[in-house]
Amino acid sequence: xxxxxxxxxxxxxxxxxxxxxxxxxxxxxxxxxxxxxxxxxxxxxxxxxxxxxxxxxxxxxxxxxxxxxxxxxxxxxxxxxxxxxxxxxxxxxxxxxxxxxxxxxxxxxxxxxxxxxxxxxxxxxxxxxxxxxxxxxxxxxxxxxxxxxxxxxxxxxxxxxxxxxxxxxxxxxxxxxxxxxxxxxxxxxxxxxxxxxxxxxx
Length: 202
Description:
Shape: flat
Oligomer: single chain
Strand order of the largest sheet: 1-2-3-10-7-6-5
Distance between the termini: 47 Å
């Protein structure tokens, strides 16, 4: 059936769709504007209670790395770990992320409070602010969730070289690395009529 639910009083419809990419779940919100005019100032948020295994009071860590890196909230009991990635490759960077006491999460969905928590019954929330949904347009907002043994939940990044700018990439040009790996520069490339100066690392 139709996965979209209309937001009351608007021409906006929202669908929530999960796809499995073990050990992660890619969780996407699709916002569809069926109207003939752009919708501006649209806000989207989600919040949830969090618990790892039997420990409802496990520490919650908000890991906000350098610009462009994968950012996540994690919760661990020392053996198992939960992660919610809210910025990074293939993710729609959120405008806010919140961690705090369960019971306060619903009224805190639009609050930016990326602070570690411990020894409390925790909840988390995240949101996107002031979005524009174009007329007859569709926008996707994505986060990644995962559960597993502590240290096993690491997103990978896929790098490829398109030498001719034509979108054709040989299989041997695809490199997959973990989020903390450093890519070693490949061999110099050659092409008739061109002189290879080096790789751009900025």
